Amino acid sequence: MATANRYAVEVRRGDDGWAVAILDPAGTEVSRKACSDETEALTYASTVRQHIYWLSEGKLREYYRLPEPERG
Questions:
Q1: What's the per-residue H, E or C state across the chain?
Q2: Per-residue pLDDT tens for 12-57?
Q3: Does any domain span residue 1?
Q4: In the predicted model, what is the mean pLDDT of residues 5-18?
Q5: What is the count of structural domains for the chain?
Q6: Pick from 5, 15, 28, 60: most CB atoms within 10 A?
Q7: Does a structural domain hold residue 15?
């Protein structure tokens, strides 16, 4: 069985509007996309969640051009 993808996604509403953040396995934000409204944010987050479920961590990093996680 393949190892579960440990990336996560969060929808955020701030003073500057809606955004979606991709978090690495350590919980560090590695990508942020500003969205025009709640619907766009929820739709994008849903797509990212599907990719987290379907793709390995390496393929997800490649697809979204995310940095390699820091080794600690």
A1: CCCCCCCEEEEEEECCEEEEEEECCCCCEEEEEEECCHHHHHHHHHHHHHHHHHCCHHHHHHHHCCCCCCCC
A2: 999 999 999 999 999 999 999 999 999 999 999 999 999 999 999 9
A3: no
A4: 97
A5: 1
A6: 60
A7: yes
CA 28 from chain centre, in angstroms, equals 10
Within a domain: residue 38? yes
Domain that holds residue 57: 8-64
Question: b/e per residue, 27-50, with b = 16+ CB within 10 A?
Answer: eeebbeeebeeeeebeebbeebee
Tell me how far CA of residue 16 lies from CA of 19, 24, 38, 45, in angstroms: 9, 23, 13, 18
Whether the per-residue pLDDT at 1 is higher than 60: the answer is: no
Task: Tell me the HSE value of 68 on the side-chain side, using a 13 A CA sphere.
Answer: 3
Asked, for residue 30, whether it belongs to a domain, the answer is yes
